[in-house]
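Cross-check.
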Amino acid sequence: MTNLLSLVTSVLLLSSTASALWPIPAHYETGNDTFWLSPDVKLEFGSGSYSGGPKETSYPSSDYSYPSTGRGNKKVEAAWDRTKAALFKTNIVPWQFYPKGAKFEPSVGSGTTINKVVITQTEKDIDAPTYEEMKEAYNLTIPNGSGTIYIDAESSLGVMHALSTLQQLFYKSQSSKARGSVWGKGPVTIQDKPRFVHRGLNLDVARQWYPKETILKTLDALSWNKMNRLHLHVTDSQSWPLEIPSMPELAEKGAYAPGLTYSPEDLQQILDYAEARGIQVIVEIDMPGHTTSIAESHPELIVGRNAQPNWDTYAAQPPSGSLKLNNKEVENFLTKLFKDLLPRLNKHTPYFHTGGDEVNANVYKLDPGVGSSNKTEIQPHLQKFFNHVQTQVHNQNMHPFVWEEMLLDWNITLPEKTIVQIWQTDEAAKKATEKGYRIIQGNYNYWYLDCGQGQWLDFGGPAFQKFYPFADYCSPRKNWRLIYSYSPTQFLTPEEAKLVLGGEVHIWSEQIDSQSLDVMLWPRGSAAAEVLWSGREDAQGNNRTFADASPRLAEMRERMVARGVRATPVMQLWCLANQGDCALNV
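Predicted model, tokenized:
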């Protein structure tokens, strides 16, 4: 009886990491047979895939034959090189997930050795695909006894997601006898596709300076989590770090210091690096508010510039100032800016973010072209402003994003294909979808990762008592469980939910920079990544539980740490090793 219990325990231990995929696939089956992936594994490209691409009900049997077609998609080849590095150079030994002294690694020489990965991409990639054109589904199978891993997808996007999954199926061996091989369990059958087409991070690189290398590193981590959008909030009131060749004065005078800018070459590298990882970069030039940095080179375009000491009368934060309305020079400025910038972006994405948040009515009492703080009187001028902006975007064959206030607070008429970004309330999401607009979710009560750091302003006089103990407006800190509990479609009808493209977590940078970005973003961003890829509910319609998620997220965290990401722990080690013993259900 003791030996039987020992055998059962051993089997359970060996299988406990077998389902530790993040984000969890739409359909996933696995066994408990041992597979060793050889460091000499070869990549082949196949043809004769399933008709029409990935299907959720079929996968290759062990005798399925893929004829080789030689070289494949260059993006896929580069992704395979990264996958091999993740498997054989920066893989993990999963000791954290077992009780002390437990045997968790199979014996060397047991099971099947895998020597080949066959990738079949059934369709040609589309450059800068729209949401409707994106094809991210994939199949990944490891049949018993074949010694081959099969990956099948319509586009390189699907293949790259499959390779991200593959990296999580194997573990580093502790045995010197393994000679560099990594081990996993199978057979494996995965048919997978995302629940939402927009899975992103909004990164503010204007309030603090982020080196290009930090952005590239973040793109890597986004791709591991199957996130596919980096929303780059690249300019704001505090600085203008984006170099515009036809308007060099903007960055020369608007950046924090010489060298703290993004050159056209830097921007191109970011765009290319992201695209190679299945990510589109959506650049935001916020306007008409959050634009004071333009006044460093063009003071004639800005009204209410750095009004002191009552800056809070005219803006959400210092320095105050907004682009003037009803002003031909502002329109000419924006036309020139867009003609320079947008043709460099639209080769990579059909989307551009035009901002529109936190427009202050009081500042327009100072504007000669408006002369009023009455929103009813300001609205026609703001409508004219955005008509011009949206026209410039459409002239470059792009579709605009705007923040929710333009639609809901200012009643701006927007083109039909405008995408509205929601950040304040679920009620705002409902109102925007009721009006028929597609939306991106990111409610600050759940998905603002900078919350909980306290106020960044200095308080004196009556303000000291008013704001004591100095919590920020969106405190407390949003822990991963709160982030994971949020559904982008909550409180929406089925018809309204169809207009939710997805969501973003947000890093506003008043108190975050490149030194602290990782610990603020990961693994909390991963929690949102699974919600956006897999949904909050499983195939049976039940909410995914923390008990299911926490060990999988903890393993994802370990894999990111092994690749140089300073992600914070999910829970203490004892809880990981003794799964279920740290639950509280009463």
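Confidence is low (pLDDT under 50) at residues 1-18, 48-71. The chain is about 30% helix and 15% strand. Passed to J.P. for a second look.
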